[in-house]
Amino acid sequence: MRNKLNCIVIDDDPEVSSYVSEFVRETSFLHLVSVHGSPAEAIDVLGSSDIDLIILDINLPGIDGMSFAKTLYDQYGKDMPRIIFISGSGDYASQGYKVDAIDYLLKPFTYEDFFKAAFKAKNYLVPTVQKSEAEEFIFLKVEHELIRVAINEILYGESQKDYVNIFTKGGKMITALSTMKAMERLLPPERFMRIHRSFIVALDKIDAIQHYTVKIGKAVIPVTDQYRQQFKSHFKSWL
C-alpha cells in the first residue's frame, strides 16, 4: 500500500503553480508528479501514471477546469482522480459536487487551507485498514457493516461502478462499497497487481498466462496496454 498520494497541479499562472507546488512538497502524504499549464498538457501524465489527486484551477486556457473535471468524471466515474479546485472566484463552488470534488479553495489561500483540503483527500482516498497482527485480514464495507476477509482467500477483484466485487476461494463473491483505486491501496502491492481498469488480481493465484491474458480458475482476464509494462517487468523471467 502506497504511503503517499500522487498529485499533479494544473494552473496557467506560474506564480500560483509555484506556491501550490511548494505546498504539495511540504505535505508529507502527497507526492508531486508534475505541474501543467493546461488540461491538454496533463493528458499524457493522467494516462500513464497512477494519479490520485489533481489541484485544478477553474479558469484555464482552452478547456476550463470544471469542464475538464466533468470530462474525467464522465469517463472514469468515481474511479477518477479526486480534485481540489482552486479559483479567484467562488462562482463555481456550488458545482463541485457534480464531480465529487474534495474541496474548493479561493485564491489566495494559506497552507493551512490547503492542508485541510489535502487531508480530506487523504481520508477519502486511503481506506481505514484493519489487519490482524500477521496482517492477513482486511475489512471491507458491505452494505451497513464491515466484513473481515482473509487476504490469502482473495483471487481477484472486479470494479462495478461504485462497488468492487471480490472473488474468493470456493466461488464466493463479496460486493464491497469501494473504488478500484481504493482497493488497490488496501491490498499489499507485493501480492496483488492491477492489470486492467476493472481488474486487480492476486499474483499467486494466477493459474496460467497466455498472450497477455491471465487465467484464474474459470476467469479469463486481459492485461490491457496501460498495465502491460508493469506486468511484463514482474513476469519477465517467463514472458
UniProtKB/TrEMBL annotation:
Modified residues (4-aspartylphosphate): 57
Stored PROSITE patterns: HTH_LYTTR, RESPONSE_REGULATORY
Source organism (scientific name): Pedobacter fastidiosus
InterPro entries: CheY-like_superfamily, LytR-like, LytTR_DNA-bd_dom, Sig_transdc_resp-reg_receiver
SUPFAM superfamilies for the chain: CheY-like (SSF52172)
Protein name in UniProt: Response regulator transcription factor
Start and end residues of each Response regulatory domain: 6-122
Annotated coiled-coil segments of the chain: none
Pfam families: LytTR, Response_reg
Domain HTH LytTR-type as annotated: residue spans: 138-237
The keyword Phosphoprotein is annotated on this UniProt entry: yes
Keywords, sorted A to Z: Phosphoprotein
